[in-house]
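=== Structure Prediction Worksheet ===
Name of assembly: unnamed complex
Input type: mixed (protein and possibly other molecules)
Chain count: two
Listed entries:
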Amino acid sequence: MDKQAWDNVHTQFNSCALTGAAAFFAGIPDSAVVVNGPLWCYFYALRYIERACPTVGNRFYCTQPDNNAVIYGTEDCLMEILEVIREKSKPSVLFIENSCAISLIGDDVAGIAKQANLSCPVVSLDSGGIKGTFSEGYQAGAKAYFSKIPLQSRGEARPRTVNLLGCTLGYYNAANDIEEIKRLLALAGYQVLACPGAGSSTEEIAAMTKAELNIVIHEELGDGIAQYLQKEYGMPYLSLLPPYGMEGSMRWLRTIGQIMWMSDASFAPVLQEIDDLSKKMDGAILDMQRIWGDLWFDQTLIAATSSIALGIAEALRLEWIDTGFLSVILQNGILSNAVPDCIDRILSGQGDSQAIESQLAGLTGGLLLGSSNEKALLQQKAVPNVLCQNIALPVYDEIILSTRPFMGIRGACHMNERLWNQYISRCQQGV
Amino acid sequence: MLMAISKKNVITMKRSYSCSMSGVWNAVAHNQGALVIYHSPKACGHVTHTMELGSYYRSLARQEMNWQQYTAPLITSNLKEEHSIFGGTEQLRKCIDYVVKRYKPEYIVIASSCVAGVIGDDVKSVTTAAQGMWNIPMLSVDSQGFFNDYDTGYYQAGLTLIERFMCKQEKKKNTVTLLGDRGGPQGIDVQEIKELLVIFGLDVHCQFPGYASLEEIQQVPSSSLCVLLGGRAKSHLGIHTLAADLETKFDIPFFDAPCPIGRQETKDWLRRMGQLLGKEKDALAAIRQQEEKLLHAIASYSSKLENEKVVLCIGRPLLYFQPAWALELLAQAKVNVTGIILLKGLTEQQQQEMRIELEKYTLAPIRQEDEDKELEKAEIAVTTHELSDSIPRQFFLPVIPPVGVGGMIRLLCKLARLAGRSKERRGIVYG
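=== Predicted Assembly ===
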C-alpha cells in the first residue's frame, strides 16, 4: 500500500535546499554564492537570507539561464557571472549551486568554473528543492565545503576550545542566540574557535580542527557535519538540544563540562549570574502573579524546527509556565532524536496537516509558540484568545532589534518577560 | 569619489523574474471549491505559500481582509530525484487520487513546474485520464515554471477556465465582470474602480479569473461588459488576450483601457467609458468630481511639497516601470525635479529605452548612476530601489502603482509626510 500523503502546503512552513545551502555559505562572510538558476528561485533565497544578513545581496549572484540554456547548457550565462566575480568580488571561496531544473540537465559546473580561472576554490552542488528542504540543503552545502576545502591537520587540541556546528542565521533571532551561547561558554571558561555557516571566515574554519570538541546546536543542521568531521579529522562531538531556560542552560553546560573534564568551579560565574537573575526574575514574577494570577494554559502548542521546538518545549514546561496539554509540531518533520518526556503529543509539520488543523482549532484560550504562519491559520479559523509568540520563521508581525536572545540565561529572562507581558495584556483586554 | 548609491545589489534583469506556477495559483487561489496541484518538488509550494502569507499580512495591515474569503488547498505532487529518471506522471496520478478523496474539491487546477518540463511529463494525459475516472473537472494549465512567467501562468489559467466552464448566456444589462487581480474585491484599487463604475450605473457581477465561485464563473458570459484591472506592458497584453477571448466566444464587449493611474489617465478612462456607454454627461460630471477631489488634496499637501528638490532614481526596466505616472505624481506635487538617475542594474539597452520614454515627458537632466552629482543637492529621492543610507529622505515607488485619483492622493499624502520629516532623520517611506 502506498503510504504517501499529499498535505495542504498552508499548514506547513519550510524552505528549499537551495536556500539552506545558500544560507550556509552566506554565513561565511568572505564567500560568494552563485545561484545557477532562474531569478525567481534566486530572489526567494536572497529574501530569506537577507533578513538576517542585510548586505548579503552584494555577494549573491544569479546566472538567469533562459529556455535555450536548458537545452544547450548554462555555460555561457555561468561564465558571464564568473567574469564579474573575478573582476569585482574576489571572494575566499565561491559556491555555485544549481536550481532544480538546472540540476537535471547535467552541466559540468566544476569544469566550467575551472575555465574561469578564479583565484579562489569553487564548491559546486545540485541543491534545488528537488533535493529536499532547508536543513538538507544546509547539510549538503556544509559537507560540500568541508569535502572541497581541507582544514588544518588536527594536531594537539587547544584546551577549553570548542566549535559550534549546525548554526545558521536563517533561523529566527539566531544572531542573538549565537551571541548568548558564546557568552555562556566564555563565562564557563571556553573559547569558541569557529561557528561555520554563522559568521566564521574561511580562515577561522580552517583552524577549527584545533578545538577540543564540536558542539552541535541544531542537530537537524549539524549532526551530519559533526559525523563527517569526526571521521575525517577525529574531532569528537556532542549533540544536545539547544540551551533554553536557566536550568536547561546549566544542564547543557554541565554535560559539556563532563565531556571536557571541567571542574565544578568553572561553573561558578554562570551559577552566580543565574542566582542573581533568578532572584530578580522571581521577585518580579511573584509581584505580577499576586495581581494577575498564574501563568496557566489548558492547551499549549509549539511549532518550530525540531531542535528549537523540543528545546523550548522542555524549558516551557519545566521552568516557565503550567499547561494542561503540550503539543509540539516539528516543522521539518519527525526526527530520530530523543523526545523530552514533558511533551504530550508530537506532530510532523510535513505530514500531519489534518491533525495540525484540528490542534489549532482547539487552541481557544491557549498558548501558541510558533511562527506567523500558525498565527495566520488561527486568525483564519477565528480561534479566540490565543496568546501567540514568535519563535520561528516566517515572522511578519514583530521586530527584534535589541540583543534579546531566546536561548541561554538572558534568553530565559526574555522569554519570561514576553510571556508575562502578553498574558497581562490579554487579561487587561478582558479575556 | 563616486559611490554606488543602491543599497542592495541591483540585479540586471535579463529576463522574467517570475514563475508561471505562482501565476496559476493567484488566478484561482480564492475561487470557492478550487484545489491547486503543483506538479513539482515540495519546495515550490513553500515558495508560493511564503508569497501568499506575505499578502495575507499586507491585507491585514491595510484592513482589506475578507475573513470569509476561501483559500484553495495548495498541494505539490512532491517530485523527487528518482522521478527525473523514471518520470513523475505516476506520482501525479497518485497525488490526484489522494486529493480527490481527501479534499473533495469542485474542480482541480494543475500547474507544471520547470522540473516536470525538463523531465518531459505528459501532464495533460494524466489529467484527462484522472478526470474520466473521478468525474470532477480537472484543468491542466500549460505553464512549466520559469520557462514561462507569472503573467503567462495567470492568464493561461484564465483562458483554461473560460474554455472549460463558460457557455453563452443571456446578457444582463449593466453588469460588469472585472478582469484581473489588484488585491481582490476588498483591495483599495478594486474599490476605487467600483466607485468609478457606479457613476455609470454599472454593477460588478464578479472578478475573474480569481475571487469567483464556479457558479459566478459560469455566469460571466451574462455580463454586458468586461473591465480590465491589469497593469501595463506584458501584464496588460495578457489581460487583453483574456478579454478578447471572452468577446470572441461570448460577445462580451470589453473596455479596452488599462487600469487608470493618476489624474490624466483617470480623466481619459472616464471620458472613454462615457463614450462607450453613451453617458458622456455622467463622464464629465465624474471627471469634475475627481478633479475637485485631487485639487482639494493638492491644496492640503502643496505647502509641504512645493519646491522640494527631488531626484528620481530608476532601476527597473521599462517593461516593469513606465515612468509617466511617477512624473505626473511629481508634477502634481509641484516639487522641483532636479534630475533623473538611471541605476546601475539597467543594461545599456534598458537605459536607452528608458531615456527615450522619459524624454517624452520631462526636460529634467537624465544621468547614469556613476555620473551622479544631483543626489548630493537633492532633498528627496523618489526611487524604484532602496538606496544607500547616505542618500536623503527616500520615497519608494510601488511596483504596481495604485489606481485612479484616489491612488494618486494616497501617494501625495505619503510624499507630504516624508517632506515633513526632519532631514536629519533620513530613511524611506514606501508608496
